[in-house]
Structures
1.
Amino acid sequence: MSSTNGTPRFDYEIHIGAPVARVWHALADGEMTPHYAFGTRFEGRLVKGAPYAFIADGAFRAVDGEILDLQPERRLVMSWRAHWDPAVEHDPPSRVTYELESTSPLTTRLRLTHDQFACDSATHTGSAASWPLMLSSLKTLLESGTPFPAT
């Protein structure tokens, strides 16, 4: 965790043994996200300005927002409004940026930045605690076909 101008942010980098195209696909494939994103299914289109949501059982929106910017297979920026528990319900939206870079034909560097928190909020605390497990599970899923059992 770090801060920019006094506001918290979370940065994380992971190397995944899969080509950029596979990693990009997995970020927004509603069939794959439940296996690494705490059981939530991505619903939306990767189109600038489009709404999206991560949907849990019972049609519960754990997170939703808007696609703010994208460069296919390189960069995805989305607003992030958390709803996973009452502590986050009144937090303002923040921003998540995924940046993908091919480091070899079969390896991708994924950089995640979660920023634009209004303050050290429940969304910031919960997200910072969850991102490493979620992205490690994505890595394991893409490299072995099996996600971590904890997600």
2.
Amino acid sequence: MIGIQNEGSLHAALKEFYREPGDIVEGDVGGYFIDLVQKNRLVEIQTGNFSSIKRKLSTLLETHEVLLVYPITLRRDIVRIAPETGEILSNRKSPKKGDIYDLFVELIRIPELILHPRLTVEVAFIKEREIRCDDGRGSWRRRGVSIVDRTLVGVVERQAFFTASDYLGLLPEDLPCPFSNRDLAQWAKVSRAKAQKTTYTLKKAGLLEEVGKKGNEILHAVR
């Protein structure tokens, strides 16, 4: 459960973006804190790992309509600040850019829920600012630099997923049938890892099936 006291700036800003007049913010539903309790649905904003909300989501869906919001960053500006003063030391644009297939990096954790009749998954494509501090406590990959906050610059676009067609519509129109993970990676212009997570999720959701092999590559087709 995410409480007001420990949420990041990005989460708080997205909650404000989705808030409507009359919403209950951080309402208690069945012992769970909910980001936004609206008249006809619950809104949960998840900026991180979907594993942490799997049980919560399964319980809520038994009795409530749920909108699960996941941000994907189209542009990230990285701001480095001094650990002692907070002074801005540098500001640069990250070369990394997210895409819709990043959604499956998280959906792989809840594939059995994505077609639940009470669940809508919505991607918010955003621009954000990532605040970093060279405090020696961060990841070794960043040489000890910590990510101290993420702030919302703007929401560029939103895309909702509710039906099988919504998810299958992400497969490229000219994708061969049957197709391998290699084919999907090539036609969608994504990494093989993303392609694998996509086919795994869609198979577990009952939308794809394995129909054979070509060499070492498993072939998939729409059910």
3.
Amino acid sequence: MTDRFTDDATALAVARASADAMYARDEASKAMCAVLTDIGPGRATMTMTVRRDMLNGYGTCHGGTLFALADSAFAFACNSRDEAAVAAGCSIEFLRAGHEGDRLTATAVERARSGKSGIYDVTVTDAAGEVLALFRGKSLKIGGSVIATRQA
């Protein structure tokens, strides 16, 4: 499939503008102190430090927190072309525990895009590069612009 934006510089500018517009409205990512550290067409990277209020009853990072970080990176990746998209489904596999103070990175990469659908893989790692979780998200384009969308 051909991108709407074939020039690399234009595609990167659109990805950045889409990300800026989304992040301004993304209260969940801001509440987790998740920071977007990289964005491009079909890809996004977010980082976050595990806080005490993110721990489960075993003293490790709650799985829902890992899922939320991965889901946020997925959302930025699948909206990076200024084509509004939402999750149609996702799954996660937990491989290792995160701990308080760990700096986590979620890296989302587009694997396939066709028509209104896309598939994205997200890898969540700690500062040592150990994989904590693998997430797969399926996106659905809902029409409209990410940049032009106004907050309700």
4.
Amino acid sequence: MDFDGKVVLITGAAGGIGKETAKAFAEQGAKLVLVDLQEDSLNKTVSELNLDGGSCLTVAADVSKEEDVKHYVDSAVQKFGKIDVFFNNAGIEGKIGYITDTDISVLDQVLGVNVRGVFAGLKHVLKVMKDQKSGTIVNTASVAGFGGSPGLASYVTSKHAVLGLSKTAALESADYGVRVNAVCPAPVNTRMMRSIEAGVSEDNAEGAKKEFEKGIPMNRYGEASEIAQLVLFLASEKAGYITGGAYRIDGGMSAL
């Protein structure tokens, strides 16, 4: 999976999955455009990954704001002239709680990032890729996009929406040589799961983690580096005939 000279745009780049995916693409020779909410977090990521400023651009942006999305897309094209791969990855979990106990503002916040942000990213990146008549997009969905999960209604709703967006974007883009797919991880060993564990059981987050792991046939969370490898495959020429798909990476959960 050679990405030498390819321009890869990643949102949520300072988070667990985003950072590991940036690392994997950089190791394969890609030029990177890294987007996240805070410039400090992006600078830390660049430092940790030892990235070269000549082949890496950072853009602080709130993906729920379309003007910020347009800015990161325009910045990528201005610096590198193209976008070959878009990992549309930024997402939040929201406050844990049953529907009856959830303030509607929580839903608005989660949908703002996880749906509006994904939609706006597709809107502006697809314009670039359609003009190029090439490109690949990978959206981050979740196993939560296939079913329900008590206490996570806002997140579950958003990930169902991402799957619908991914399929629709794939159909709208196929004639232009652009592919769109979604990755659907089970729980991954990142900050987000620490937050969900604490939200489920503030007094016994470790116990919540063990309960989650019991529902995974491989008896463990996924690692961000494992998700990154699936993203690289879907973005690569090895997946040249794959579009409109939603790929679970879930330690066997889908086999239950």
